[in-house]
Predict the structure.
Amino acid sequence: MASVKLYNMNAKEVGTLELSDALFNVEYKESVIHQAVVTRLANERQGTKSTLTRSEVRGGGAKPWRQKGTGRARQGSIRSPQWVKGGVVFAPKSRDFSKKMNAKAKEVALFSALSQKIRDDEVIFVDAIAVKEAKTKEMAAFLKAFNLEKSVLLVMDNNDEAVLRASANLAKISTLPVEQINTYDVVKNAKIVISKKAVEQIEEVYGE
């Protein structure tokens, strides 16, 4: 088992944490991670766009003018695509963009991405994610203590209302309960901050 440093919210080292190699030291598998990210983004698409084709636009049943003798180009309907208010040639229609990925592959992608983040020193383990007051300055002080300048994901073991309120006004911080941890959010954020209890919960759910 690998041992990592454990910090408090003031960036002071308070001990070490043992991590399961079966979960947090997994081989990097880019193809599976890519599949997980693509699946997540595809499932977020609504696919509700819809535009009328020439057969669906109301009106235009009569020929606008006779075929010959007017000096103008022949026209069959005022709802042809070249006309203003005409139908669209290849009109986009509602469709389902969703993709499926089996649970085991999702798990492999998650821990592959998380393991690589740990190897790249992009994961911070803290004894607890907590603040004294539900104020933005508390989380701002946390970012400054760890010198975090890019996007940060807080993986929490509980929905601490004070932490959620304190981080709400900081664009670079996003929060996620441990049961919702996923490959997309792990890859998307530059740094991951995870509590000791959250690690224990992950090992309890996914451990052998």
